[in-house]
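Justification of resources, computational component.

The compute hours requested in this renewal are based largely on the per-chain cost of generating structure records like the one below. Each record pairs the submitted sequence with a full structure-token output. That output is archived, and it is also reused by downstream analysis tasks.
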Amino acid sequence: MLSKEQLEHFESRLQEERTKALKALGRFGRRTKLDREVMDSDLSSYTDHMADQGTEAMEREKAALFASKEGRYIYRLERALKRLYSDPDKFGLCQTCSTEVAFKRLDALPHARYCIDCKRQEEAGV
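The structure output for this chain reads:
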């Protein structure tokens, strides 16, 4: 079971990670809005070369994937905060085998739900 200080440490880490991810998502939103405004300007009335259009489409797709990834990360961080607040005695326990998740693992990945062995088994499809 984690000490009160450790729980406070992980709460702080989760909040920090959430703040960073929200800022990154905000930058994405501002950049996307700016890109749309530029596309709607009078300068965009000139016909782009097909290669330029393809590049722009690829950049938009990459940006959407980034936003989706950040959104999933924020969701995992918020779920971890919810677990921490609702049942602090179980925070840091593997959701599969109920053993303690290593402190180093939690410190590196504060939203981790599984110990390293169970995570490896999950990824291997066992």
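The chain has a mean pLDDT of 84. The chain has four helices and no strands.
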